[in-house]
Amino acid sequence: MSEYERWLQQDLDDPDLKEELLAVKDQPEEINDRFYRDLEFGTGGLRGVIGAGTNRMNVYTVRKATQGLANYLLKHAEGKPQSVAIAHDSRNKGVLFSQQSAAVLAANGIKAYLYPQLMPTPSLSYAVRHLKCDAGICVTASHNPAKYNGYKAYGSDGCQVTAEMADGIMAEINALDIFADVKKMDFQEGVDKGLIEYIGEETVSAFLDDVYKESLIDDASNLKLVYTPLNGSGKMCVTRILDRIGVKDVTVVPEQSEPDGNFPTCPYPNPEIREALQKGLELCDKLQPDLLLATDPDCDRVGIAVNQGGEFVLMTGNEVGILLLDFIAKVKKEQGKLPAHPVAVTTIVSTDMVDPIAKDYGVELRRCLTGFKYIGDIIAELEEKEGNADSYLLGFEESYGYLSGGYVRDKDAVDGSMLICEMASYYKRQGKTLLDVMNGLYEKYGYYKNDLCNFGFEGEDGMKTMNNIMDTLRKNPPAEIAGAKVIGRSDYLESVAYGDKEGVIDLPKSNVLEYRMENGCKLIVRPSGTEPKIKIYLSGKGATRADSEAVIQKMKDAVPGLLGI
């Protein structure tokens, strides 16, 4: 309450904030939710609901975070001038937050390079490396609902910040008073002084040139496409790269073509969810394209629906990742370009079906924690430590994130869109759809099925509930799940595996629990790093599609009891 009163007494320069604070003066629970904590800065930066309060995304929490970043950079500068690249997507307040971040950096004598228009998140990772910056900021909340915005922070390598750097920045942030300790400069003054500079077309073109270098067949002109950027940042870059590979028959979903942070036709703009693609699917019914392509608001993830005899079938992120790995390895082998020691990377929660496919092509498969920065770290290791940069084929996450080259250190839906279209075109020439190819892989390798359960826990009480669930599972691990005996488990926070794979886990610590059952099924419990929810990843394999679906359903039914909810 004292912090709430202090905010009310300030001459706030965003009038929306004072109105909000006055509107909740008789709502103690709402005041508590806004002020019971500061938004936590982690390896994913900041993410929260837009609004007034220390637990909200607003110009003051953004400025404070940027001052913390500035202090951290200056402390480690060793006399070298510092610079930061900044981008934003279509989120509400995105322009304001990106400009205010630039202004705080300028006030600290740090050069800010700012994209003048909304751009995909991967283009921010690219700009950091291309302009040789010391850090990067992307103002985005990815696929969250419209009430959210966020602030992703990047290191000089173009990866999202390491845990060590995030802790260092957080320590600097925590030492600041949100009003008294933040240096400010008028944005235009920063431009006039040359401390803020707009990123030009040269960087955008260089980004697209490097995406295009990942092209495998360079001619997808036989493809008919419906595309939706979901009112986000993907339209310009995706349509330009599709044009370069010959895809001319592209219809952009009109209701979702232009940037709009309110996402009026897709309240949850996530290409994993059918409802977000509804407008695109309706247009597909009329136009009957080969493929529906959908990128999320910051254009780092891409989802698809495939025309199968006039019906449009959505494919999962795991399925597209499997198809891409098989396609890239197959085509490179046909072209004589498959490296001597090829490497693919995915996460601990992605499908086990990639293992036999990788083995068939002689591809080393490496697994890492959830979060594309860990895939980026492996790309860097291949380049810098192992001297084997050309060996990297593909990195993917089950949540629709893909990257086939080392030009950035984040998932890239521009690259993903290009490769998916080339893949669809390649198989269309053989009279096959992507669904036909996927079914062929299932018949060859077995019917692997994956699913995801989400349980939301809002507010302070929700955070306590999530912590209690994880603590209870650690202290009292289940002996069986859905009638199947648990034969092994891994605790990625303690870095220890028990049972069938006993030993030390050589990965960074993460609050993740994995259970392996005697029937070959797997269940992973993980609190989301970006939303107030617990995610349950389910993995099973059956002799037939019906068998695998049945075993997954049995596990889904058991999940609430496992969590005690």
If you had to describe this structure to a student in words, what would you say it looks like?
The protein has 565 residues and is an alpha/beta fold. The chain has 18 helices and 23 strands. The strands form 4 sheets. Strands 16, 17, 18, 19, 20, 21, 22 and 23 form an 8-stranded antiparallel sheet that branches. Helix 4 (59-75) packs across helix 7 and helix 12 packs parallel to helix 13. The longest helix is centred in the C-terminal third of the chain and has 19 residues, at 545-563. It is globular. The two termini are 32 Å apart.
- Kindly report the oligomeric state of this protein: single chain
Mean pLDDT comes to 95
- Unreliable sequence segments: none
Number of strands: 23
Given the helix and strand composition, which structural class is it? alpha/beta
Please state the CA-atom Rg, rounded to the nearest Å.
24 Å
Report how far the terminal alpha carbons are from each other: 32 Å
The total of helices stands at: 18
Strand content: 15-25%
Q: Share of helix among residues?
A: 25-40%
Largest sheet: 8 strands, antiparallel
